[in-house]
């Protein structure tokens, strides 16, 4: 159900007014339940959401769920070998079919009254129904599913949306070298942050805070290079609505990867780097919920999900080449060290900001030269809020 455009437009006007003046957004943007409902409906329901990596769905019956607001979707590998995405809500009396997570199933049997669905979401049968009941008339509602570089995304919109390939198109060349499709998930951490989801995105957009807060990341990450005025002009590529941004990530001289000592954390380089391609690191964002940072030896993918107006879940997965073996080619603690420490530092900052913006004394201040990406974020956010009802 799409809500009235009125509150969404009111908030987008407030955002544009502040951002055009180069100041942050006012506290109501982080505190309003009315706005939060609009964001779930107008932004997250219409966005491509990261479900996982294709390697998690490598044979018929493997499935995983994607949660967003009140919605839950099952993504499954069907008997025909294709991917299907459909609602995780029984067509009988609405029970959730499977618990959130991943698994292997021959079919999906509702725990309540045992209506049984095939791996493509069609209803196979239902016990003790009247003679004229037609299972074919009760499939689970489908969602769009698309694979980009081995990463599986779903879209819960019930009206047409841009294809993911189109949306991320300009980033394809930059990312091709890493062969993300040829990786697998080595480790996943799900974080819960006591902060509004936009505070978490703002934080991820800027490195104004990096020098003072990220000692591990700064061992290899060249924050000075990121902040040079020319960087945005020469490296950063963005879609016209700023929803997609991608760029090379500047490393300090001599560093090969975002690790504590700058050497590879995995001995099995990704993609073309195994054949001697000169090392580089790169990142791509799809606002509001997905980011990928790729190094020559590993990558991280991040999925953001609002849990409540003041709570956000971030799921980060570390990817290594599919044939890399734990203990031989990489050590998990070393692999995850830099990003896990950086994440924990960031979440503490986000929670601190959330506490602050709750105060009536908070009046947003001017943004620095290093926070242009925060402005980009809010421009794309306002555009999403303003999108026509579809
Ligand atoms: S609610 Fe699923 S079978 Fe009744
Ligand atoms: Fe940070």
Short descriptors:
390 residues, alpha+beta, 2 domains, binds FE2/S2 (inorganic) cluster, 7-stranded antiparallel β-sheet, Naphthalene 1,2-dioxygenase Alpha Subunit, Chain A, domain 1, 27% helix, Rieske Iron-sulfur Protein, 4-stranded antiparallel β-sheet, 11 helices, globular, 17 strands, binds fe (ii) ion
Structure characterization notes:
The chain is an alpha+beta fold and 390 residues long. The protein has two domains: 97 residues, Rieske [2Fe-2S] iron-sulphur domain (Rieske Iron-sulfur Protein), CATH 2.102.10.10; 195 residues, Naphthalene 1,2-dioxygenase Alpha Subunit, Chain A, domain 1, CATH 3.90.380.10. The chain contains eleven helices and 17 strands. It has a seven-stranded antiparallel β-sheet. Strands 4-3-2-5 form a four-stranded antiparallel β-sheet, with no helix packed on it. Strands 1-10-9 form a three-stranded antiparallel β-sheet, with no helix packed on it. Helix 1 packs antiparallel against helix 11 and helix 6 crosses helix 10. The chain is globular and about 70 Å long. The protein starts with a helix and ends with a helix. Bound molecules: FE2/S2 (inorganic) cluster and fe (ii) ion. The site of fe (ii) ion has 6 residues, from helix 10.
């Amino acid at each position: 159900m799409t809500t009235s455009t009125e509150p969404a437009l009111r908030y987008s006007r407030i955002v544009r007014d502040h951002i055009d003046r180069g100041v942050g957004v006012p506290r109501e943007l982080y505190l309003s339940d009315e706005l939060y409902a609009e964001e779930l409906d107008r932004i997250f329901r219409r966005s491509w959401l990261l479900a996982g990596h294709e390697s998690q769905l490598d044979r018929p019956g493997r499935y995983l769920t994607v949660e967003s607001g009140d919605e839950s979707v099952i993504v499954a590998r069907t008997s025909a070998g294709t991917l299907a995405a459909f609602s995780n809500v029984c067509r009988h009396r609405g029970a959730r079919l499977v618990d959130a997570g991943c698994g292997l199933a021959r079919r999906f049997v509702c725990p309540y009254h045992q209506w049984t669905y095939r791996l493509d979401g069609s209803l196979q049968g239902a016990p003790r129904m009247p003679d004229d009941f037609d299972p074919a008339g009760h499939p689970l509602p489908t969602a769009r599913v698309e694979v980009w570089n081995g990463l599986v995304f779903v879209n819960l919109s019930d009206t047409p949306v841009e294809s993911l390939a189109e949306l991320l198109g300009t980033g394809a060349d930059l990312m091709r070298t890493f062969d993300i499709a040829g990786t697998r998930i080595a480790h996943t951490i799900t974080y819960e942050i006591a902060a509004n989801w936009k505070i978490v995105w703002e934080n991820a957009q800027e490195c104004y805070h990096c020098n003072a807060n990220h000692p591990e990341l700064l061992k290899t990450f060249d924050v000075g290079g990121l902040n040079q005025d020319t960087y945005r002009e020469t490296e950063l590529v963005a879609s016209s609505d700023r929803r997609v941004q991608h760029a090379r990530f500047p490393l300090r001289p001599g560093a090969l990867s975002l690790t504590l000592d700058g050497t590879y954390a995995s001995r099995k380089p990704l993609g073309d780097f195994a054949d001697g391609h000169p090392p580089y690191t790169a990142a791509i964002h799809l606002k509001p919920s997905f980011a990928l940072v790729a190094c020559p030896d590993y990558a991280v993918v991040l999925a953001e999900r609002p849990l409540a107006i003041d709570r956000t879940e971030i799921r980060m997965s570390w990817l290594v080449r599919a044939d890399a073996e734990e203990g031989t080619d990489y050590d998990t603690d070393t692999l995850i060290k830099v990003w896990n420490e950086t994440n924990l530092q960031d979440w503490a900052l986000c929670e601190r900001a959330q506490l602050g913006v709750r105060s009536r004394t908070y009046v947003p201040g001017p943004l620095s030269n290093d926070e242009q990406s925060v402005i980009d974020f809010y421009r794309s956010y306002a555009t999403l809020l303003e999108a026509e009802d579809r």
